[in-house]
Specification:
alpha+beta, four-stranded antiparallel sheet, 476 residues
Protein backbone atom coordinates (compact mmCIF):
# COMPACT_ATOMS: atom_id res chain seq x y z
CA UNK A 1 0.00 0.00 0.00
CA UNK A 2 1.22 3.47 -0.86
CA UNK A 3 2.31 5.41 2.21
CA UNK A 4 0.69 8.84 2.33
CA UNK A 5 2.53 11.71 4.02
CA UNK A 6 0.12 14.41 5.12
CA UNK A 7 1.28 17.94 4.28
CA UNK A 8 2.49 19.99 7.28
CA UNK A 9 0.95 23.37 7.97
CA UNK A 10 3.01 26.24 6.59
CA UNK A 11 2.90 29.95 7.49
CA UNK A 12 -0.05 30.66 5.18
CA UNK A 13 -2.04 27.73 6.58
CA UNK A 14 -1.54 28.98 10.12
CA UNK A 15 -2.38 32.58 9.20
CA UNK A 16 -5.58 31.60 7.39
CA UNK A 17 -6.59 29.28 10.24
CA UNK A 18 -6.03 32.08 12.77
CA UNK A 19 -8.25 34.50 10.80
CA UNK A 20 -10.85 31.92 9.72
CA UNK A 21 -10.63 28.40 11.17
CA UNK A 22 -13.24 27.14 8.68
CA UNK A 23 -11.28 28.43 5.67
CA UNK A 24 -8.08 27.02 7.13
CA UNK A 25 -9.69 23.59 7.51
CA UNK A 26 -10.89 23.60 3.91
CA UNK A 27 -7.41 24.59 2.70
CA UNK A 28 -5.76 21.81 4.69
CA UNK A 29 -8.34 19.27 3.44
CA UNK A 30 -7.65 20.31 -0.16
CA UNK A 31 -3.91 19.95 0.32
CA UNK A 32 -4.39 16.53 1.93
CA UNK A 33 -6.57 15.39 -0.98
CA UNK A 34 -3.92 16.55 -3.47
CA UNK A 35 -1.29 14.56 -1.56
CA UNK A 36 -3.46 11.44 -1.78
CA UNK A 37 -4.41 11.87 -5.44
CA UNK A 38 -1.06 13.17 -6.68
CA UNK A 39 -0.09 16.52 -8.10
CA UNK A 40 -0.73 15.82 -11.79
CA UNK A 41 -4.25 15.47 -13.14
CA UNK A 42 -2.77 13.74 -16.17
CA UNK A 43 -1.77 10.82 -13.90
CA UNK A 44 -5.17 10.52 -12.23
CA UNK A 45 -7.11 7.32 -12.88
CA UNK A 46 -10.31 8.61 -11.29
CA UNK A 47 -11.09 11.43 -13.69
CA UNK A 48 -13.67 10.56 -16.33
CA UNK A 49 -11.49 11.96 -19.10
CA UNK A 50 -8.55 9.65 -18.38
CA UNK A 51 -9.90 6.67 -16.46
CA UNK A 52 -9.88 4.45 -19.58
CA UNK A 53 -6.46 5.65 -20.69
CA UNK A 54 -4.13 2.77 -19.86
CA UNK A 55 -1.01 2.99 -22.04
CA UNK A 56 1.47 0.14 -22.39
CA UNK A 57 4.22 0.17 -19.82
CA UNK A 58 7.78 -1.04 -19.94
CA UNK A 59 11.00 -0.49 -21.84
CA UNK A 60 11.26 0.76 -25.38
CA UNK A 61 11.53 -2.82 -26.64
CA UNK A 62 8.59 -3.98 -24.54
CA UNK A 63 6.16 -1.46 -26.06
CA UNK A 64 7.42 -1.67 -29.64
CA UNK A 65 8.77 -5.07 -30.70
CA UNK A 66 5.42 -6.89 -30.74
CA UNK A 67 3.90 -4.12 -32.88
CA UNK A 68 6.80 -3.81 -35.32
CA UNK A 69 5.65 -6.33 -37.96
CA UNK A 70 2.22 -4.70 -38.25
CA UNK A 71 3.70 -1.19 -38.21
CA UNK A 72 6.06 -2.11 -41.05
CA UNK A 73 3.35 -3.70 -43.16
CA UNK A 74 0.97 -0.77 -42.72
CA UNK A 75 3.73 1.75 -43.35
CA UNK A 76 4.65 -0.03 -46.59
CA UNK A 77 1.02 -0.23 -47.66
CA UNK A 78 0.66 3.53 -47.19
CA UNK A 79 3.83 4.09 -49.20
CA UNK A 80 2.37 2.00 -52.01
CA UNK A 81 -1.13 3.46 -52.10
CA UNK A 82 -1.48 6.72 -50.12
CA UNK A 83 -0.25 9.79 -52.05
CA UNK A 84 0.28 11.87 -48.88
CA UNK A 85 2.46 9.20 -47.28
CA UNK A 86 4.49 8.78 -50.46
CA UNK A 87 4.95 12.53 -50.71
CA UNK A 88 6.09 12.91 -47.10
CA UNK A 89 8.77 10.22 -47.31
CA UNK A 90 9.90 11.25 -50.79
CA UNK A 91 10.23 14.86 -49.62
CA UNK A 92 12.58 13.79 -46.82
CA UNK A 93 14.65 11.56 -49.10
CA UNK A 94 14.93 14.18 -51.84
CA UNK A 95 15.99 16.97 -49.48
CA UNK A 96 18.34 14.89 -47.32
CA UNK A 97 20.09 12.83 -50.00
CA UNK A 98 19.05 14.32 -53.33
CA UNK A 99 21.68 13.47 -55.90
CA UNK A 100 23.89 12.01 -53.18
CA UNK A 101 26.13 13.15 -50.34
CA UNK A 102 29.75 13.54 -51.39
CA UNK A 103 32.81 13.58 -49.12
CA UNK A 104 35.29 16.40 -48.73
CA UNK A 105 38.38 14.92 -47.14
CA UNK A 106 39.57 16.85 -44.06
CA UNK A 107 42.60 15.20 -42.52
CA UNK A 108 43.87 16.33 -39.13
CA UNK A 109 46.86 18.41 -40.15
CA UNK A 110 48.13 18.84 -36.62
CA UNK A 111 48.59 15.11 -36.14
CA UNK A 112 49.78 14.34 -39.67
CA UNK A 113 52.34 17.14 -40.04
CA UNK A 114 55.03 14.69 -38.95
CA UNK A 115 54.26 12.54 -42.02
CA UNK A 116 52.95 15.05 -44.59
CA UNK A 117 55.36 17.92 -44.16
CA UNK A 118 53.71 20.70 -46.14
CA UNK A 119 50.21 22.07 -46.64
CA UNK A 120 50.54 21.30 -50.34
CA UNK A 121 51.23 17.64 -49.59
CA UNK A 122 48.23 17.45 -47.25
CA UNK A 123 45.94 19.05 -49.80
CA UNK A 124 47.20 16.73 -52.51
CA UNK A 125 46.51 13.73 -50.23
CA UNK A 126 42.94 14.93 -49.63
CA UNK A 127 42.29 15.46 -53.34
CA UNK A 128 43.62 12.00 -54.19
CA UNK A 129 41.50 10.37 -51.47
CA UNK A 130 38.38 12.08 -52.86
CA UNK A 131 39.16 10.92 -56.41
CA UNK A 132 39.77 7.34 -55.29
CA UNK A 133 36.49 7.22 -53.36
CA UNK A 134 34.67 8.75 -56.33
CA UNK A 135 35.89 5.93 -58.56
CA UNK A 136 34.46 3.39 -56.12
CA UNK A 137 31.22 5.30 -55.46
CA UNK A 138 30.29 5.91 -59.10
CA UNK A 139 30.74 2.27 -60.06
CA UNK A 140 27.74 -0.04 -59.65
CA UNK A 141 30.16 -2.66 -58.36
CA UNK A 142 30.11 -0.88 -55.01
CA UNK A 143 26.74 -2.62 -54.59
CA UNK A 144 27.07 -6.39 -54.07
CA UNK A 145 24.11 -6.83 -56.45
CA UNK A 146 25.88 -4.57 -59.00
CA UNK A 147 22.68 -2.60 -59.38
CA UNK A 148 23.25 0.79 -57.75
CA UNK A 149 25.82 3.50 -57.32
CA UNK A 150 26.68 4.78 -53.86
CA UNK A 151 24.39 7.80 -54.24
CA UNK A 152 21.49 5.53 -55.19
CA UNK A 153 22.24 3.31 -52.21
CA UNK A 154 22.07 6.33 -49.92
CA UNK A 155 18.52 7.03 -51.08
CA UNK A 156 17.53 3.36 -50.67
CA UNK A 157 19.02 3.16 -47.16
CA UNK A 158 17.24 6.31 -46.00
CA UNK A 159 13.94 5.31 -47.61
CA UNK A 160 14.12 1.82 -46.10
CA UNK A 161 14.89 3.24 -42.68
CA UNK A 162 11.91 5.61 -42.86
CA UNK A 163 9.64 2.89 -44.19
CA UNK A 164 10.62 -0.02 -41.91
CA UNK A 165 12.18 1.71 -38.92
CA UNK A 166 15.68 0.41 -39.52
CA UNK A 167 17.88 -1.19 -42.15
CA UNK A 168 21.12 -3.19 -42.08
CA UNK A 169 24.20 -2.69 -44.24
CA UNK A 170 26.75 -5.50 -44.46
CA UNK A 171 30.31 -4.94 -45.62
CA UNK A 172 31.27 -7.58 -48.17
CA UNK A 173 34.58 -8.29 -49.87
CA UNK A 174 34.52 -9.86 -53.31
CA UNK A 175 37.23 -9.69 -55.95
CA UNK A 176 35.82 -9.22 -59.43
CA UNK A 177 37.66 -9.03 -62.74
CA UNK A 178 38.43 -5.45 -63.72
CA UNK A 179 37.53 -3.95 -60.32
CA UNK A 180 40.01 -1.78 -58.44
CA UNK A 181 38.38 -2.66 -55.10
CA UNK A 182 36.97 -5.72 -53.42
CA UNK A 183 34.87 -3.81 -50.90
CA UNK A 184 31.15 -3.77 -51.64
CA UNK A 185 27.95 -3.19 -49.70
CA UNK A 186 24.86 -5.34 -49.17
CA UNK A 187 21.64 -3.69 -47.98
CA UNK A 188 19.49 -6.02 -45.85
CA UNK A 189 15.83 -5.29 -45.20
CA UNK A 190 14.70 -5.09 -41.57
CA UNK A 191 12.45 -8.19 -41.73
CA UNK A 192 15.36 -10.49 -42.50
CA UNK A 193 16.99 -9.83 -39.13
CA UNK A 194 14.85 -11.73 -36.65
CA UNK A 195 15.00 -14.28 -33.85
CA UNK A 196 16.05 -17.74 -35.05
CA UNK A 197 14.42 -20.89 -33.71
CA UNK A 198 15.23 -21.62 -30.05
CA UNK A 199 17.10 -18.35 -29.57
CA UNK A 200 18.52 -17.43 -26.18
CA UNK A 201 17.77 -14.43 -23.99
CA UNK A 202 20.72 -12.49 -25.42
CA UNK A 203 19.02 -12.25 -28.83
CA UNK A 204 16.41 -9.51 -29.14
CA UNK A 205 14.58 -9.24 -32.46
CA UNK A 206 17.56 -10.83 -34.21
CA UNK A 207 20.19 -8.66 -32.51
CA UNK A 208 22.56 -10.53 -30.20
CA UNK A 209 23.82 -8.27 -27.41
CA UNK A 210 26.34 -8.52 -24.60
CA UNK A 211 25.87 -7.62 -20.94
CA UNK A 212 26.39 -3.93 -21.76
CA UNK A 213 23.65 -3.96 -24.39
CA UNK A 214 26.16 -3.59 -27.24
CA UNK A 215 25.61 -5.65 -30.42
CA UNK A 216 27.71 -8.79 -30.77
CA UNK A 217 26.11 -10.37 -33.82
CA UNK A 218 23.05 -10.25 -36.05
CA UNK A 219 20.95 -13.24 -37.11
CA UNK A 220 20.07 -12.80 -40.77
CA UNK A 221 17.60 -14.94 -42.71
CA UNK A 222 18.56 -16.28 -46.12
CA UNK A 223 15.34 -14.78 -47.54
CA UNK A 224 12.40 -12.62 -46.55
CA UNK A 225 10.35 -14.56 -43.94
CA UNK A 226 7.13 -14.13 -45.93
CA UNK A 227 8.57 -15.36 -49.24
CA UNK A 228 7.45 -18.97 -48.75
CA UNK A 229 8.18 -19.96 -52.35
CA UNK A 230 11.92 -19.36 -52.14
CA UNK A 231 13.13 -22.40 -50.24
CA UNK A 232 13.64 -23.29 -46.60
CA UNK A 233 14.08 -20.44 -44.18
CA UNK A 234 17.39 -20.49 -42.30
CA UNK A 235 19.42 -17.99 -40.31
CA UNK A 236 23.12 -17.13 -40.36
CA UNK A 237 24.95 -15.51 -37.46
CA UNK A 238 26.84 -12.45 -38.72
CA UNK A 239 29.32 -10.94 -36.22
CA UNK A 240 28.96 -7.21 -35.71
CA UNK A 241 32.76 -6.75 -35.78
CA UNK A 242 35.55 -8.60 -37.53
CA UNK A 243 38.66 -9.99 -35.86
CA UNK A 244 40.42 -6.62 -35.98
CA UNK A 245 37.52 -4.82 -34.27
CA UNK A 246 36.24 -3.10 -37.42
CA UNK A 247 32.47 -2.95 -37.69
CA UNK A 248 31.20 -5.04 -40.58
CA UNK A 249 27.45 -4.76 -40.02
CA UNK A 250 25.86 -1.32 -39.80
CA UNK A 251 22.50 -1.15 -38.02
CA UNK A 252 20.97 2.12 -39.14
CA UNK A 253 18.06 3.47 -37.10
CA UNK A 254 17.06 6.30 -34.78
CA UNK A 255 17.01 5.37 -31.11
CA UNK A 256 14.09 7.19 -29.48
CA UNK A 257 14.49 5.63 -26.02
CA UNK A 258 17.53 4.33 -24.14
CA UNK A 259 18.00 0.62 -24.69
CA UNK A 260 15.90 0.35 -27.84
CA UNK A 261 17.08 -2.52 -30.02
CA UNK A 262 15.13 -1.85 -33.22
CA UNK A 263 13.80 1.28 -34.91
CA UNK A 264 10.21 2.45 -35.43
CA UNK A 265 8.83 3.42 -38.87
CA UNK A 266 8.77 7.15 -39.60
CA UNK A 267 5.01 7.13 -40.23
CA UNK A 268 4.13 5.18 -37.05
CA UNK A 269 2.59 8.13 -35.12
CA UNK A 270 0.35 9.09 -38.06
CA UNK A 271 -0.47 5.75 -39.66
CA UNK A 272 -4.12 5.85 -38.60
CA UNK A 273 -4.54 9.51 -39.56
CA UNK A 274 -3.06 8.93 -43.01
CA UNK A 275 -5.17 5.83 -43.63
CA UNK A 276 -8.40 7.52 -42.54
CA UNK A 277 -7.57 10.58 -44.61
CA UNK A 278 -6.87 8.36 -47.61
CA UNK A 279 -10.24 6.62 -47.16
CA UNK A 280 -12.01 9.95 -46.77
CA UNK A 281 -10.39 11.27 -49.94
CA UNK A 282 -11.37 8.15 -51.86
CA UNK A 283 -14.97 8.44 -50.61
CA UNK A 284 -15.14 12.09 -51.66
CA UNK A 285 -13.82 11.23 -55.11
CA UNK A 286 -16.37 8.46 -55.49
CA UNK A 287 -19.17 10.77 -54.30
CA UNK A 288 -18.11 13.37 -56.86
CA UNK A 289 -18.04 10.75 -59.62
CA UNK A 290 -21.52 9.50 -58.70
CA UNK A 291 -22.81 13.07 -58.54
CA UNK A 292 -21.56 13.66 -62.07
CA UNK A 293 -23.48 10.64 -63.40
CA UNK A 294 -26.92 12.23 -63.80
CA UNK A 295 -29.46 9.69 -65.13
CA UNK A 296 -32.82 10.60 -66.77
CA UNK A 297 -35.82 8.31 -66.16
CA UNK A 298 -38.82 8.50 -68.52
CA UNK A 299 -42.20 7.36 -67.11
CA UNK A 300 -44.94 6.14 -69.48
CA UNK A 301 -48.36 4.54 -69.14
CA UNK A 302 -47.76 2.40 -72.25
CA UNK A 303 -47.32 -1.31 -71.71
CA UNK A 304 -44.38 -1.41 -74.08
CA UNK A 305 -42.55 1.53 -72.55
CA UNK A 306 -39.26 2.85 -73.79
CA UNK A 307 -36.31 0.60 -74.32
CA UNK A 308 -33.24 1.29 -72.19
CA UNK A 309 -30.81 3.44 -74.09
CA UNK A 310 -27.11 2.77 -74.05
CA UNK A 311 -25.13 5.32 -71.99
CA UNK A 312 -23.39 7.85 -74.16
CA UNK A 313 -19.88 6.74 -74.91
CA UNK A 314 -20.42 3.21 -73.58
CA UNK A 315 -20.55 -0.09 -75.44
CA UNK A 316 -23.57 -2.36 -75.10
CA UNK A 317 -21.58 -5.57 -74.75
CA UNK A 318 -22.72 -7.08 -71.43
CA UNK A 319 -26.25 -8.44 -71.01
CA UNK A 320 -28.29 -6.61 -68.39
CA UNK A 321 -31.35 -7.67 -66.47
CA UNK A 322 -34.44 -5.46 -66.43
CA UNK A 323 -34.03 -5.05 -62.70
CA UNK A 324 -30.49 -3.70 -63.00
CA UNK A 325 -30.24 0.07 -62.75
CA UNK A 326 -26.80 1.59 -62.73
CA UNK A 327 -25.77 5.20 -62.85
CA UNK A 328 -23.94 6.06 -66.04
CA UNK A 329 -23.04 9.27 -67.84
CA UNK A 330 -25.96 10.35 -70.02
CA UNK A 331 -28.12 7.23 -69.47
CA UNK A 332 -31.86 7.29 -70.21
CA UNK A 333 -33.91 4.47 -68.67
CA UNK A 334 -37.65 3.79 -68.81
CA UNK A 335 -39.82 3.01 -65.81
CA UNK A 336 -42.77 0.71 -65.38
CA UNK A 337 -46.24 2.22 -64.97
CA UNK A 338 -46.92 3.80 -61.59
CA UNK A 339 -43.22 3.76 -60.69
CA UNK A 340 -41.40 6.89 -59.63
CA UNK A 341 -37.81 7.80 -58.86
CA UNK A 342 -36.05 10.12 -56.48
CA UNK A 343 -32.66 11.47 -57.50
CA UNK A 344 -30.12 11.43 -54.65
CA UNK A 345 -28.10 14.62 -54.44
CA UNK A 346 -24.80 14.02 -52.60
CA UNK A 347 -23.96 17.74 -52.97
CA UNK A 348 -20.48 17.12 -54.23
CA UNK A 349 -17.87 18.44 -54.43
CA UNK A 350 -17.89 19.02 -50.67
CA UNK A 351 -17.02 22.64 -49.96
CA UNK A 352 -15.58 21.75 -46.53
CA UNK A 353 -13.29 19.04 -47.89
CA UNK A 354 -10.20 21.15 -48.52
CA UNK A 355 -10.31 22.99 -45.20
CA UNK A 356 -10.74 19.77 -43.21
CA UNK A 357 -7.94 17.97 -45.05
CA UNK A 358 -5.58 20.90 -44.55
CA UNK A 359 -6.34 20.92 -40.82
CA UNK A 360 -5.45 17.22 -40.51
CA UNK A 361 -2.35 17.69 -42.66
CA UNK A 362 -1.07 20.38 -40.32
CA UNK A 363 -1.20 17.90 -37.44
CA UNK A 364 0.50 15.23 -39.55
CA UNK A 365 3.18 17.72 -40.57
CA UNK A 366 3.92 18.53 -36.93
CA UNK A 367 4.45 14.85 -36.15
CA UNK A 368 6.71 14.35 -39.19
CA UNK A 369 8.61 17.63 -38.67
CA UNK A 370 7.47 18.85 -42.07
CA UNK A 371 5.83 22.29 -42.28
CA UNK A 372 2.43 22.26 -43.96
CA UNK A 373 3.72 24.14 -47.01
CA UNK A 374 6.57 21.65 -47.50
CA UNK A 375 4.36 18.62 -46.90
CA UNK A 376 1.88 19.44 -49.68
CA UNK A 377 4.20 21.61 -51.84
CA UNK A 378 1.79 24.52 -51.59
CA UNK A 379 3.23 28.04 -51.30
CA UNK A 380 0.46 30.61 -51.43
CA UNK A 381 1.27 32.67 -48.35
CA UNK A 382 3.67 35.59 -48.18
CA UNK A 383 7.38 35.42 -48.95
CA UNK A 384 8.17 35.59 -45.23
CA UNK A 385 5.84 32.69 -44.40
CA UNK A 386 7.23 30.54 -47.21
CA UNK A 387 10.78 31.38 -46.18
CA UNK A 388 10.01 30.50 -42.56
CA UNK A 389 8.63 27.13 -43.67
CA UNK A 390 11.78 26.40 -45.70
CA UNK A 391 14.06 27.41 -42.82
CA UNK A 392 12.15 25.24 -40.35
CA UNK A 393 12.15 22.27 -42.71
CA UNK A 394 15.84 22.70 -43.42
CA UNK A 395 16.60 22.22 -39.73
CA UNK A 396 15.06 18.76 -39.99
CA UNK A 397 16.74 17.95 -43.30
CA UNK A 398 20.19 19.10 -42.19
CA UNK A 399 19.88 17.13 -38.95
CA UNK A 400 18.92 13.98 -40.83
CA UNK A 401 21.70 14.61 -43.35
CA UNK A 402 24.28 14.69 -40.57
CA UNK A 403 22.75 11.55 -39.08
CA UNK A 404 22.89 9.86 -42.48
CA UNK A 405 26.52 10.80 -42.93
CA UNK A 406 27.57 9.44 -39.53
CA UNK A 407 25.45 6.29 -39.68
CA UNK A 408 26.13 5.20 -43.26
CA UNK A 409 28.34 7.39 -45.42
CA UNK A 410 31.34 7.91 -43.15
CA UNK A 411 31.74 4.22 -42.14
CA UNK A 412 31.64 3.19 -45.82
CA UNK A 413 34.16 5.91 -46.70
CA UNK A 414 36.50 4.62 -44.01
CA UNK A 415 36.23 1.05 -45.36
CA UNK A 416 37.07 2.15 -48.91
CA UNK A 417 39.98 4.43 -47.95
CA UNK A 418 41.38 1.72 -45.68
CA UNK A 419 41.40 -0.73 -48.58
CA UNK A 420 42.94 1.92 -50.85
CA UNK A 421 45.79 2.42 -48.37
CA UNK A 422 46.25 -1.35 -47.95
CA UNK A 423 46.46 -1.76 -51.74
CA UNK A 424 48.98 1.07 -52.05
CA UNK A 425 46.72 3.52 -53.87
CA UNK A 426 47.34 6.01 -51.07
CA UNK A 427 50.52 6.50 -49.07
CA UNK A 428 49.59 6.89 -45.39
CA UNK A 429 52.54 6.36 -43.01
CA UNK A 430 51.50 5.24 -39.53
CA UNK A 431 47.95 4.37 -40.60
CA UNK A 432 47.92 0.76 -39.38
CA UNK A 433 50.13 1.25 -36.35
CA UNK A 434 48.48 4.15 -34.54
CA UNK A 435 44.68 4.49 -34.10
CA UNK A 436 44.97 8.26 -33.67
CA UNK A 437 46.87 8.58 -36.93
CA UNK A 438 44.31 6.36 -38.65
CA UNK A 439 41.47 8.58 -37.45
CA UNK A 440 43.39 11.66 -38.63
CA UNK A 441 43.62 10.25 -42.17
CA UNK A 442 39.95 9.29 -42.32
CA UNK A 443 38.40 12.67 -41.51
CA UNK A 444 35.77 13.86 -43.99
CA UNK A 445 32.86 16.26 -44.25
CA UNK A 446 29.78 15.24 -46.24
CA UNK A 447 28.24 17.78 -48.59
CA UNK A 448 24.83 17.46 -50.22
CA UNK A 449 22.61 19.55 -52.50
CA UNK A 450 22.13 23.11 -51.16
CA UNK A 451 19.00 24.39 -49.50
CA UNK A 452 16.25 25.55 -51.82
CA UNK A 453 15.78 29.29 -52.31
CA UNK A 454 12.69 31.34 -52.97
CA UNK A 455 14.39 34.58 -53.99
CA UNK A 456 17.95 33.79 -55.06
CA UNK A 457 19.04 37.43 -55.21
CA UNK A 458 18.02 38.06 -51.60
CA UNK A 459 19.66 34.80 -50.50
CA UNK A 460 22.94 35.63 -52.24
CA UNK A 461 23.05 39.13 -50.75
CA UNK A 462 22.33 37.77 -47.28
CA UNK A 463 25.04 35.10 -47.64
CA UNK A 464 27.59 37.66 -48.85
CA UNK A 465 26.72 39.95 -45.94
CA UNK A 466 27.26 37.12 -43.43
CA UNK A 467 30.63 36.31 -44.97
CA UNK A 468 31.70 39.96 -44.88
CA UNK A 469 30.74 40.20 -41.21
CA UNK A 470 32.75 37.08 -40.45
CA UNK A 471 29.81 35.16 -38.95
CA UNK A 472 29.87 32.64 -41.82
CA UNK A 473 32.28 31.18 -44.37
CA UNK A 474 31.96 30.11 -47.99
CA UNK A 475 31.71 26.47 -46.89
CA UNK A 476 29.10 27.06 -44.18
Amino acid sequence: MKKITLPPQNFFDKAISWISPQAGLKRWQARTQMAIMGGYTGASKKRRQTQTWNPAMGSGDNVSLDDLPVLRDRSRDLLRNAPLAVGAVSTVVTNVVGTGLKPQAHIDRTILKQYLKTDEAMEAWENKAERIFQVWAESRDCDITRGQTFAEMQALVLRSCLESGDVFVLRKYKERVGNAFGTSVQIIEADRVADPTNCNDNIIAGVEIDTDGAPVAYHVANRHPDDHDKGTLSYARVPAFDNSGIRQMLHIFTRNRPGMTRGIPYLAPVIESLKQLDRYTEAEIMAAVISSMFTIFVKTESDEGLKPMVPMGAEDTAPARNSDYKLSPGAILDLQPNEAIEIADPKRPNQAFDGFVQSILRQIGVALELPFEILIKHFTASYSAAQAALVEAWKTFSSRRKWMASQFCQPIYEMVITEAIARGYLDAPGFFSDPFVRAAYLGAEWIGPPRGQIDQLKEIRAAAYRVNLGVSTLST
